[in-house]
What does this fold into?
Amino acid sequence: MLRDWSNGDKKAHDQLFRAVYNELHRQAAGYLRHEHPGLSLQTTDLIHEAYLRLIDQQHVEWQNRLHFFGIAGQVMRRILVDHARSRQAAKRGGSAIRLPLEEAIVGSPAQDLDFVALDEALARLAEMDSQQGQIVVLRFFSGLSVEETAKVLDVSERTVKRDWNVAKAWLRRELSRGRPARARE
Amino acid sequence: MAAKRTQPRQTGEGQRVTGVTPEQWHRVKEVFEAALGHAPEERSAFVGQACAGDDLLHSEVNSLLSSYEEESSFMETPAVAIAVRSLMSEESAALVGQQFGHYQIVREIGRGGMGVVYLAQDDSLGRPVALKLLPKHLTSDPNRLQRFEREARAASALNHHNILTIYEITQLDGLHSIATEFIDGVTLRERIKNKDLELSETLNIAEQIASALVAAHEAGIVHRDIKPENVMLRRDGYVKVLDFGLAKLTEQETVKRVNASAATAGTNTDTGVMGTVGYMSPEQARGESVDHRTDIFSLGVVIYEMVTGNIPFEAKIAGNVIAPIPGQEPPPLAHYFPEAPAKLQLLVNKALRTNQEERYQTITQLLTDLRSVRSKHSAMSRFTTRHLLLLAAILAVAVAGLLWIPRQPSRTVKSSLPPMTILPFTSFPGAEWLGDFSPDGNQIAFAWTGEKEDNHESDIFVKQIGAEKTSRLTSTPGSEFCPVFSPDGQNVAFIRYSETGAADVFITPALGGPEHKLLTLGSNVPFPPVWDWSPDGKLIAFADKASKDEASKIFLISPDTLAKRALTSPAAGWDYNPVFAPDGQSIAFVRQSSTLSADIYIVPLMGGEPKRLTFENTLISGLAWTADGQEIIFSSTPDSRNGSLWRIQASGGAAERFDVAGYSASWPQISRRGNRLGYIQMSGDMNIYRIEVSDHAVSKDPPTKFIASTRFDITPQYSPDGGRIAFASDRSGQNEIWMCDSDGSNLVRVTSLNKYAGTPRWSPDGQQIAFDFFDEGRGHIYVISLEGGGLRHISMGDFDDTVPSWSRDGKWIYFSSNRTGVSEVWKVPAAGGDAVQVTRRGGRLAFESMDGKYVFYCKEYTTPGIWRMPVDGGEEVQVLNSFHSENLGDWAVVNDGIYFIDEPTKNGVAIEFFDFATRKVRHVAGLGKIAIGPHGIAVSPDRREILYVQADHTGEDIMLVENFH
It folds into this structure.
């Protein structure tokens, strides 16, 4: 019943990646120039925005919402991990730019989430429990609510809540242990 | 608030969950979920039971539970927000290297709700600036933008060392931007985040913020957004408050945004203003109008946070607004920081009152309390570091020996110092000039003009502190200045100018006896010839210049060998007032860059570049080292009067006012033991007098006191129709322009600039008045329209433009300026435009002849005479060769000659008239043995009356601070 979208259609993936990435850039640039007085930074809005643009282009047929949001979440995940990697590289190169970002802009306490470590831990979690991995991608990277996630995955909300709680506790513990030796590199 | 620190987990190696099978993992999830159904305290027991016999399951669930129970925002922010943030930094980095107007972006240095700040290079002036690009949505309303600009400029114009200086507010590529001085340092926010502040550091920072607010509030400027992000800590210890006026851009908007986010409360992305809400006063958060007391509340929050690491009030959404909950008491400081002084707690309580009527009513009161907390605190820390060691040593001896514990050490605690008291040391008529304490600190040598007020020649006197008798050491005709005790205390040396103008040092026994000349300092020693003798007696420091036109330097000369060397070499201006440090290794001196701008520098005796200590940009009237060499006390005078004493660490930092001495205090001296401080208290009363004259006869009627107050009333000018008189007066506190009818009635104040405004000059049509205005240590020419009161500046810049004067056709305004490095007469179109240099060989105080053909002017005091040259240029001709035009000049041009008041003769002072036709000087009126300003004279258009300024009393008394510390 659940398609394995992590290896989904390459073309769709690439297009969505570009669309989401462009949308993110557009928003980032907007915030930077402060064209928006208010602040409504909702992942789903952003992805919908990207989705609408893609639909307009009519190049891709989406198999279903799961397909779409799943790929969008993966795109987000890749953007963040790539960016974290490039920043780490810059740090090692000694040219890191420290960027204190006021909370007012992003709207949440600034947190230094190690996306590279998170990505690795999430991969291990998915190995052990692929549905739980998908829940994390949809909740965190795609920004879906518990209800939406349950609908997309066709499971109960209770399952989503439970898996999300356990996954967060597990990921957090893994990250606080420090980065284990990289198994995949 | 802040999450507890995550402890490294002790789960042991080899227990990586990757070793858990999917089946086991399923079971882990089940037990975990079931455990969450139990109360936290019961979970452990439940898990133990549920996992009986399965150690792996047990430890896995336990470890996940403790991870879960730790309060955290882990993964609560949607990834998209983090992604946008990451991309923003890429976007921002892309601006680097780009050109905005004459600024080139070097790198981003900070970002906030109010815009992104870049380090940029100003190509036109070749200096680094902090360039803030303002968000578009904040700059769309032109009214708000204007209010912001006005307030930001006003705050910057205060020229306060704790307020960030603004260079330019402008539009670059459609973006509004502010270029300010670049601060090499970190924000208080970063500082708090990275490391706990020491209490002493907290108090120091708070004091500097408060000091900035005192200046701003006095000028009627409220910051409205005091928070750690808006405070920069410069590397050298200076604290700079940023973004004055910026709150003007968001005033309305803040309320709107608060409401908007309250409406959608619950979504964690709508916390746009939460960051600063914690610092807002309750009245501000409620969207009510605020006054200076909102800053007091916000500073209270900042102090609380610096001490505890937490803000006192959690911002709560209540109804439609976010505000501290009334009546909710924040936890006491000691809850987080047990050593917090009780007085600081009281201070914070008083600053954080939700009702502004119960709060500190002025920031000055808060500052005073801060200082008293700090002085207590520093006394305590001195005790704990130094004296505890001493105590330990004494205890060790006591234990080893007699087991007798002395009680004395407790008496050495500094806080038991007796309070400082002030008493007048002299209150003679006339002027006393402070000289020097004797090495034992019990006598003071000083220069005094003597019992008679009309005597302008000073002699040297010595007086014992606490005794009445004053002994006179010199009685020659001519003046002696600046007495200094010889380092052994046996003799007193002083300066007397020779007939050729050289400054000679004479020496005489302190108990009286014959004097003899010790040496000649130089032939161009600037006045006052302040000099100093090194503590070991081997060197004398003084100021001199190679020729009249050059900058003065600090020189050292050996009284034994007369070997002389220059210690400083300023590019321009004057170095003077050298004072040896108590250890004799360095010299502090005053470097004056223009008429009204000077600062203190320190130079090692070994040589090297002098280091700038103060950033006052004011007049410095005297400085003294404390006995331990740790601090310097100096007198800073923002205009020609009202100086006050300040103290600053010799190692640098912010100067703080030495309040004990009050206003009009100058020329501080500190006794060698350090317990006594002497200074000069100045008082003065200048009034405008009127005398009736006739064209051809000597006046017989006595002059009358015409415009008078207890302060300075100077530089009178008749309006062209003779109906009104403009003058300058500081009767309202600051020197402003005033106006009255020619009979003295209908007195009105023309300017309210709150800075020194002087020398009013009527335009030929009588509709406008030009005057000079001193701001940030520089003089500028302004014109005020009497119809409607519009004010515009005619000349602005980094030089001294002073004493304006209109051309007879009203098209030009002449003024004196040091634009070329020396004083010359310049002129500028009255309608605005570029200044044109008029004189080439020195000139000041210009007047155009009545027919508009010539410009009359005088030169520096050292070059007596009055000159004239054709208005369109040409050769200058000296028309009067004997006249000394001092200060603001006592002369006035009429169609057939010049009225003037020259220096006093034996008969006193007289008004004289130089006739252009006969080229002779005629006596007009004798004024007797009075003291003249010299602050300008005015002749009525009908030439029946002359106004002049008389000094009715200028007193300078020596005051003594006992128990100085």
